Amino acid sequence: MQIDKEVVGGVLVVRLRGELDHHAVEPLRDEIEQSLENTHYRGLVLSFQGIDFMDSSGLGLILGRYRTLSSRGGKMVLCEVNANLRKIFELSGIFKVVPVFESEDSALRAIKEA
Amino acid sequence: MEQKVQSKVIAANYMHLQFPSRSENESLARVAVAAFVTVLDPTMEQLTELKTAVSEAVTNAIIHGYDGGEGEVRLHCALKDGTVEVVVEDDGIGIEDIDQARQPLFTSRPELERSGMGLTIIENFVDEFFISSEPGRGTRVTMRKVLASSETLN
Ligand SMILES: Nc1ncnc2c1ncn2[C@@H]1O[C@H](COP(=O)(O)OP(=O)(O)OP(=O)(O)O)[C@@H](O)[C@H]1O
Ligand SMILES: [Mg+2]
């Protein structure tokens, strides 16, 4: 699992790549938590552009970070969720908890305006 | 006539895989199942659903069955009349209350950031789904998914 991180105006942008399963998620969780701490939990954009497979472990990763940010007053949004992942997103109701945007730009704008 | 013979060959196909309960084998399991069903020419959506369901069952065996420790996971696949059957077995701790385990959002391990969605995902992504389990002995998850109509095969 590769990720690409960038801080844009204080907001952490994480671009995920590969397959988001239990094997991939465990090391990723700690890495993202560390970066969130470094950026003072201002906000998190998770981009799924490079993700072609995700199971419930990915849901756990999203909800876990959502909890971290909520408890510290930061905002979290998702973007670039491809068609392969639609069904698991819909089934889990994650759309109702964490906003999803088409592009990284619109996701960043939404966080800044929040 | 030619094709009828071929569908009989397909009906007889099967594959067994056994591997230690290591998380890197989660992708091995779902890729192996995907390769096994290629002969039925499934749609991208069917393939994604099947791979996700397999990943859920195998991950559960590793995380819950063996509590992240050592053990063996067995995967059995068979094709019959355009339907694939996948069985995932472990010899782990087993499930005390299967009805409770199948409830959406029920998890025994919230501290591991599990969200209790795995079995619900399986239920929605395949056509038939059963669990049999004996506490202290292990768990067997059986799923069946129709990938090709019998008309396509005949
Ligand atoms: N192979 C197994 N061995 C022992 N217990 C299991 C097994 N599979 C499932 N369970 C039990 O059933 C519960 C529900 O499983 P399910 O996959 O729906 O959720 P989860 O694994 O806890 O969370 P998620 O799948 O969303 O990460 C588990 O928390 C566990 O208690
Ligand atoms: Mg699970």
Automatic annotation (TrEMBL), chain A:
The UniProt record lists the keyword Signal: no
Pfam families listed in its UniProt record: STAS
Entry similarity comment: Belongs to the anti-sigma-factor antagonist family.
Protein name from the UniProt record: Anti-sigma F factor antagonist
GO biological process annotation, one example: sporulation resulting in formation of a cellular spore
Key words, A-Z: Phosphoprotein, Sporulation
PROSITE patterns: STAS
SUPFAM superfamilies: SpoIIaa-like
CDD domains: STAS_anti-anti-sigma_factors (cd07043)
Matching InterPro entries: Anti-sigma_ant (IPR003658), Anti-sigma_F_ant (IPR014237), STAS_dom (IPR002645), STAS_dom_sf (IPR036513)
Domain (STAS): residue spans on this chain: 1-111
The species this protein was found in: Alicyclobacillus ferrooxydans
Gene3D superfamilies according to UniProt: STAS domain
Gene Ontology MF annotations: anti-sigma factor antagonist activity; antisigma factor binding
Family annotation (PANTHER family): ANTI-SIGMA FACTOR ANTAGONIST TM_1081-RELATED, ANTI-SIGMA FACTOR ANTAGONIST TM_1081-RELATED-RELATED
Function: In the phosphorylated form it could act as an anti-anti-sigma factor that counteracts SpoIIAB and thus releases sigma f from inhibition.
From TrEMBL, chain B:
Limits of the Histidine kinase/HSP90-like ATPase domain: 45-149
Keywords: ATP-binding, Kinase, Nucleotide-binding, Serine/threonine-protein kinase, Sporulation, Transferase
GO biological process assignments: asexual sporulation; negative regulation of sporulation resulting in formation of a cellular spore; sporulation resulting in formation of a cellular spore
Entry EC number(s): 2.7.11.1
Record-linked InterPro entries: Anti-sigma-factor_SerPK, Anti-sigma_F, HATPase_C_sf, HATPase_dom
Coiled-coil regions listed: none
Stored SMART domains: HATPase_c (SM00387)
Pfam family, one: HATPase_c_2
Catalytic activity: L-threonyl-[protein] + ATP = O-phospho-L-threonyl-[protein] + ADP + H(+); L-seryl-[protein] + ATP = O-phospho-L-seryl-[protein] + ADP + H(+)
GO molecular function terms listed in the Swiss-Prot or TrEMBL record: ATP binding; protein serine kinase activity; protein serine/threonine kinase activity; sigma factor antagonist activity
Gene3D superfamilies, A to Z: Histidine kinase-like ATPase, C-terminal domain
UniProt similarity note: Belongs to the anti-sigma-factor family.
Known role: Binds to sigma F and blocks its ability to form an RNA polymerase holoenzyme (E-sigma F). Phosphorylates SpoIIAA on a serine residue. This phosphorylation may enable SpoIIAA to act as an anti-anti-sigma factor that counteracts SpoIIAB and thus releases sigma F from inhibition.
Protein name, per record: Anti-sigma F factor
